[in-house]
Specification:
about 250 residues; mainly alpha; 13 helices; about 80% helix; TPR repeat
Length: about 250
């Protein structure tokens, strides 16, 4: 009888332990699901420029699951747009410490380093890290940005390779075509740059970056009237842009 009682107690203890573990795992899964949903909401608010609400959603996500990497990734994007660059970098790095193989973590941190820190070779390494993940759903994004960041870092050979590759994978993307136009301009191929800018203008609305490149191309081609037309549009549409400031200072190169 004693042996039977011991066996029953052991079975009961094991069943209670298994139940507790299952309950804990269920709670953890529920917290992770809540964090996922709140992070998706944060991403939606971020895309609409509602940064304060987006940060509140990120906060709720991290309260549910403090190790949910995508929440830190979105947090980094928000702070990047708000100009709080040190905080943004800390958020991106935290996301990568949680999951260093996540392609979105690597891609967004790479863009931050390229666009906000001008650390071009380092940025490109993170794009390559994103591309190593076989489950990456949108590799063309990172391929495109390798080309753009290589161009900014004056590696024209790498810029051409990756921008052409991006253009083959996703033809008629406005940002890729603008990158190719910038590459042609840097090489002194002014007519090709002009043709690419005309192609880009048919694809997307003008940006401060594209207008500024048009100004410089037309200036070097000697088309003063066309140059002045683009200059007027830049001043009117994007008066506070860095490109408008360069125009006011006559810093064309």
């Amino acid at each position: 009888m004693r042996i039977v009682q011991l066996v029953l107690c052991s079975l009961l203890s094991g069943a209670l332990t298994a139940t507790a573990v299952a309950a804990e795992e269920g709670q953890s899964a529920a917290r992770t699901e809540l964090a996922r949903l709140r992070t998706e909401l944060a991403g939606g608010y971020y895309a609409r420029g509602q940064y304060a609400v987006a940060l509140e959603e990120v906060k709720t996500a991290l309260e549910a699951a403090s190790d949910y990497g995508p929440a830190y990734n979105v947090q980094g994007l928000i702070y990047m747009d708000l100009g709080e660059l040190d905080t943004a970098e800390q958020s991106f790095q935290r996301a990568l410490r949680i999951d260093s193989t996540n392609p979105d973590n690597n891609h967004n941190y790479g863009w931050f380093l390229c666009n906000k820190r001008a650390r071009y070779p380092e940025a490109i390494r993170y794009f390559f890290a994103a591309l190593k993940n076989p489950l990456y759903a949108t590799p063309v994004k990172s391929i495109q940005l390798v080309g753009i960041c290589a161009l900014r870092g004056n590696d024209l050979a790498m810029a051409e390779e990756y921008l052409q590759r991006a253009d083959r994978m996703l033809p008629n993307n406005g940002q890729t075509v603008l990158g190719l136009a910038g590459l042609a301009y840097r090489r002194g191929e002014l007519q090709q740059a002009r043709d690419l800018l005309l192609r880009q203008a048919r694809l997307v609305s003008p940006s401060a970056e594209s207008l500024w490149l048009n100004i410089r191309v037309e200036r070097k081609l000697g088309n003063s009237d066309v140059e002045q037309g683009f200059a007027k549009e830049l001043r009117t549409r994007f008066p506070d842009s860095p490109e408008a400031k360069l125009l006011a200072q006559q810093k064309f190169d």
